[in-house]
Structure formats: structure tokens, C-alpha cells
Amino acid sequence: MLAVGPIAILPSPVLAAVPTTTPFTVVNGTATWSGSGNFGTVNAATDRAILAWNAGQFNVQQGDTFSFQLPNGGSILNKVGYTSTGAIGTPDNAIINGGLTSNGRVFVLANGNIMIGGGAQVSTSGGLYLSTLAEADNFNFLALGNLAFTGGSTGSITIGGTNASQATANSSQVNVVGDIGAWAGAVSLNNVLVTGNMIVNQKGASTLLLTGAAGTTQVNGNLTVTTAGGPIDQATTALVVGNTTTLNTTGNLSVTLNRSAANNFGTVTANAGAVSLSDRDGINIGNSTVTNLTVTAVNDISTVGTVAVSGDVSLTSTGTGNVTFANNSTVGGLFSASATNGNVTANVLGNIATGTITVPTTSTLLTSISVTNGGTGYTAAPTVSIIGGGGTGAVATATFSGGSVTGITITNVGSGYTSAPTIVLTGGGTNPAAVATASALLSNFVSGLTIPSSSGGAGYQTTPTVRSRLLPPAAPRRPRRQR
């Protein structure tokens, strides 16, 4: 006789399944639903169709895929937590824990939260655009094919990580093929890969985290980040951007993107308070207005636009890169820079006060220039002589306008300078009404000297003398100002 012990009856795994009946009301245009098994398709026959989803139905579960098939180049608006007429209704969440695909632009407007869970796969031709900013009126979408993004926030947007709607907790990478945008009171990113561009716009005052504990945020295109009242920060995981990163905060709030040595940016532009950046390679700083700027990179640090800093600047290249701060940029506080194995160049508009400048002993480069007055009474361009300093070969030319020295440009940086050369301007007329003055901080040799037109003075008839000082790296010095 066969002996049979206790039998354990295990529950069958619950398989995700999309709705088989239409889960939405068509508010505008023509659209149909086809759902079977794990795959649901919205077929929109008209561009700019608007769908009001039934409660709890915009829920792409793990293993499921929603596909939006649109007219060529078309858009579709999915309203979640809105009534069948498109008006704001009972709050409801939009959830994407599985797959979402489209041949066009997909908008999800939720009167509630929007969650994209770990492991989700998104692929669109025109982009996926998420908003929890209230927008009952359909006029903007019907007229322009876009949302206004001006209403009050009804919820948050999380992209990546786990959420309560996942049948199985999953914090693996969210893959987005194409562009994605998020507008909400609070936005968070956690282990996300975007092959196109990404827009993040946070209306609330909380800190916006661009990376989370689960993994790196990588945007292969452009990353545009705007906050209305919160600082921008990251976890210890890396932020990687292929092209341009644009950072905007309201009220001079801070940007802190230096918490991972694996960060990597192409070009960064910022309108913010104190900005701190780190990069595993080199970094370019585009047109920016900030209160303080601190950048650490392995290779080159360069300004590719005008950077206006009302406070201090500190730039550090730890590898083989050069540090260049130029393009009519300005510094209101102290300028400090370090290049472990490269050169430091500062060519700014107006006066500059230097902090600590550190370069290798073999480096031969002008590090900063300050012009206090261009003088008056010049009738011709003076001749520039660079004398002494232990080096040879540096050559510079002067320009003048309206009787003032307006610029001195280095045409040959020379070599071997180990102390401050004397810069002498001769000629240019007789008896200037006011003597042009300037000061410069160099490291071993002259590589650039400029006088902004605002400090040119007037009335020069002969060449003035511009005195320049080479200061030791650790000896901060503020230039004397002409009274």
C-alpha cells in the first residue's frame, strides 16, 4: 500500500493581464482598444486624441505592455483621475511597471502620482511626457499638441526603484528609448537610462535628487532640470549626461552634483546659487550665472560661454588636464585653481582677486589678469615689452580706442618664466592725462593679458607701464584699485 504524507497546495502564480474591455472614454478624436493576455493596444485614428482612463486602469503591470499606435507624427493625451469630459475628478495614479511603446508622442496627465517602476521598458518615437500639474482644459493640447504645464501639482513622479504596485519588488534599471519629460511637485530618478533627451521640472520646494540608491542616472542626449523652490542634488550613484546639462533653480538655490567620482558631463550651464560639480573626465562650463562655482575634474576644465560668478570660483584638475576660465567671464570673489599636471589660464572681464593657484613647477602659463585703468590721452597703440622674469620669447600687442588702452593681447607665450616679468608700455603719444594700470598673476610665463574697454581710461599720448606680479601659488593677493 502506498503511504501518502501531507500534501502542500501551493498557489499558482498570478499572471498579469491587460483589460479586455475598453478601459477609457474617448474625450476627443477617435481611438479604440484591443486587449488580450499581456498586450494592450490603443489605436488612434486621429491626431491629438484625448482619453479619460477609468479608475485604476492606467496600470501597466509587470509583464504587460501598452502600445499606442498613432497617426504619423501624432500625439495622444491620457488623462488619469479626470472625468469622462476631461475635467478633474477623483485622484488616481498612473503606473508603468511593464512596457510602454508608441510610434508617436504619448502624454500622461494624472490627478495623482505617476510611477515608473524598476525594470520598466519604454520606447517611443516622439517621447513620453508625464505631468501631475492640474490641467482640466484641453485647449492647449488640441491647439498645440502639448500641455501647458502651469497648474498646481496633484502628486509626485518617481522614475525607477520599487513601488507598492509591483507584484515583485524590482529596482533594476528603467530603460527609456527616446525622450522623456516629467513635470510634478516632486520628481525623483533612480537607476534610469534614457537614450534621448530628458526634461525634469519640479514645482515643489523639496530637494530634487537626480540619482538614487539603486543605480546611475544616464541620459545620452541633453538633460534639462528646473526647480521652482528646491535645491538640486544626487545620491552617491553617478549622473552621466552625453551632451548638455542645463540646471536652473529659483532663488539662488544650490546645485550639488559632486557626490560620485563617476559623474560625467559634457557641457554644463547653470542659473543657480552655489554650484558644485565633479567629473571623471573633462567638463565644459557654458553660459552661466551662479553665486559660487566649485568644479573638480580629472581632465580639462574649460569655459565655453560667459560664466558670471558673484562669489568665489574654485577649479581643480586632478589628472592631466588644463584649467581655462575665460570668455568674458567674471568673478566677484576669489579665483582659485589647481592643475596637477597641466596649466591654469584665467582671462576675465574686469578685476579679479586670486586665492590659491597651484600648477606643476614645469608649467609656464599666465593664471589671471586684472586691469584697473586703461589711462587717457593715447593717440596711438603703445609698444608692449615683457622684461625679465627668467624667461624669453613672450610677445604682446596693445590696442587703444578713444584715447585709452583697451587691450593687450599675448601673441607668443614664451617659456621659462620663473618670476614676475616687468611689462612696459612705451609710445602711444605724450603726456597722458591718466596713467593706465594693471596687475596680473602668472605661473612661470605670460600667456594672456587683456584690458576691458570699461577700464580703458582716456587721454593717453604716450605708452603707460603695466606692472605685473607673479605670486607664489599659496599667497593670495588682491589687486590694487585705481582711485
CATH fold-level label of the largest domain? Pectate Lyase C-like
Shape: elongated
Query: Number of folding domains?
Result: 2
Strand order of the largest sheet: 1-4-7-10-13-16-19-22-25-27-29-32-35-38
Number of strands: 45
Count, helices: 1
Strand content: 35-45%
Radius of gyration: 30 Å
The CATH class name of the largest domain reads Mainly Beta
What does it look like?
This protein has one helix and 45 strands. With 483 residues, it is an all-beta fold. A 14-stranded mixed sheet has the order 1-4-7-10-13-16-19-22-25-27-29-32-35-38, with no helix packed on it. A hairpin with a 2-residue loop joins strand 42 and strand 43.
Can you tag this structure with a few keywords?
483 residues; mainly beta; Pectate Lyase C-like; nine-stranded mixed beta sheet; disordered N terminus
Per-chain topology:
Layout (H helix, E strand, L loop, with lengths): L23 E5 L2 E6 L2 E6 L4 E5 L5 E2 L4 E5 L5 E6 L13 E3 L2 E4 L2 E6 L3 E3 L4 E4 L2 E5 L7 H6 L11 E5 L13 E4 L2 E5 L1 E5 L1 E3 L3 E5 L5 E2 L7 E3 L3 E5 L4 E2 L5 E3 L2 E5 L6 E3 L9 E5 L2 E6 L3 E3 L2 E3 L1 E6 L3 E3 L3 E3 L3 E5 L5 E3 L4 E2 L2 E6 L4 E3 L6 E6 L6 E9 L9 E5 L4 E10 L2 E12 L6 E5 L10 E7 L40
Parallel strand pairs: 3-6, 4-7, 5-8, 6-9, 7-10, 8-11, 9-12, 10-13, 11-14, 12-15, 13-16, 14-17, 15-18, 16-19, 18-21, 19-22, 20-23, 21-24, 22-25, 25-27, 26-28, 27-29, 28-31, 29-32, 30-33, 31-34, 32-35, 33-36, 34-37, 35-38, 37-39
Antiparallel strand pairs: 1-4, 2-3, 40-45, 41-44, 42-43
